[in-house]
Design brief:
By secondary structure, the chain is α/β, with parallel strands linked by helices. It has helices at 7-11, 57-71, 88-93, 109-114, 123-136, 149-162, 201-208, 215-222, 241-251, 254-263, 269-277, 279-289, 312-331; strands spanning 16-18, 21-22, 39-44, 50-51, 54-55, 77-81, 141-143, 166-170, 184-190, 195-199. The chain contains 13 helices and ten strands.
Length: 342
């Protein structure tokens, strides 16, 4: 094995990130291969564990199997998970942020009992095994308590680019479109086609006839229903998507538009009035929807090296077996007091 590290040595050298601090060491990739790799994959883990808005950990195995076999082989992958308190920053700005999402509460005997009728494993049961699976596959896991995965990914994107490498973000989250550039592209799971699909700068321009730099500004005006971010049209009827696109094509960004509206007329009276009256509303949306790039995480050199894939098949099989075992235990008709402790 290149790098001279045995499997046993790797297990002793694991790197775990939590709250921005390296807590313990278990594994580190050899650094000799950094210059040989042209791209680094940043994997947004949680969305792959859902089917629509319903948790479905078994879906994770299907998408990861396809990612490993059809999308990337030895490219380095960094798995990113949401911190337990990652939403707090944005909820201070907008209390309704992601208010439609179920709160992720600690797993108890009672919750095991209440979830025993579900067809899939409780996601809270599955996550420790999913994280262990990544380490077995030589994929470092980054999870920072006060940060959402989106912000960690955005921070790491900048750090990867600074090393002269390209970045591929593996996620269905449209928030990442604001990061697309010549050196940053997405690869998105497409359930309707049963495959992953690359989405690049040329795809974005063909779809929207605009630059990705305007994507964030547009979403600030039209809102984001999935994250409970209100649209300008909710407070200023008539100011819809067409008006927003027209103004952004002329002014380039929300900040430019607001600055121009403050000193001269930029559109029809209803649009002008809305921009003046609800400027703070739009700037708040901008703060909420902008991905942060200042998360306390540092890209390790070893994370950018070619990935050793020799354990992938065994690790996938082991995870599949564990989830099946958990599902069987979960469907047993036991009382909350008799629920097994893991």
């Amino acid at each position: 094995m290149r790098g001279g590290a045995s499997i046993n040595e790797k297990k002793k050298n694991k790197i775990n990130i939590k709250c921005g601090i390296r807590l313990e060491s278990q594994y580190q990739r050899p650094t000799a291969l950094v210059s040989e790799r042209r791209r680094v994959f940043l994997l947004d883990v949680y969305p792959l564990c859902y089917n629509g808005d319903q948790p479905r950990p078994s879906a994770f195995i299907e998408w990861i199997r396809m990612l490993f076999s059809r999308v990337t082989n030895k490219d380095p992958i960094i798995a990113v998970m949401d911190g337990e308190r990652g939403n707090e920053y944005r909820r201070r700005l907008l209390p309704t942020y992601k208010a439609n999402r179920k709160r992720f509460v600690p797993l108890t005997s009672a919750s095991r009992w209440s979830s025993s009728k579900n067809k899939d494993v409780d996601l809270r049961e599955a996550l420790p095994y999913i994280e262990a699976f990544f380490w077995e596959c030589n994929v470092p896991v980054v999870k920072i308590e006060y940060a959402e995965a989106d912000d960690v990914v955005a921070t790491l994107v900048d750090q990867v680019l600074q090393r002269g490498l390209k970045t591929v973000i593996a996620s269905p989250d449209k928030d990442f479109k604001q990061l697309i550039s010549e050196n940053v592209q997405l690869v998105m799971p497409m359930p309707e086609f049963g495959r992953w699909s690359f989405y690049s700068l040329k795809h974005y321009i063909a779809q929207y006839d605009s630059d990705p730099s305007a994507d964030l500004s547009l979403r600030c005006m039209v809102g984001d229903e999935s994250d409970c971010v209100p649209s300008l049209q909710q407070v200023a009827p008539g100011f819809g998507r067409k008006t927003a696109i027209k103004l952004l094509k002329k002014h380039g960004s929300l900040e430019n538009l607001l600055n121009a509206a403050a000193v001269r007329t930029v559109g029809k009276p209803y649009a002008q009035d809305a921009l003046i009256k609800y400027g703070d509303f739009l700037r708040r949306n901008l703060q909420v929807l902008s991905l942060r790039r200042d998360v306390a995480v540092n890209l390790e050199e070893g994370w950018c090296c070619a990935r050793d894939t020799c354990h992938d098949i065994v690790a996938l099989s082991k995870l599949e077996g564990k989830l099946k075992e958990l599902r069987q235990l979960q469907t047993k008709k036991v009382s909350p007091g008799e629920a097994l402790q893991y």
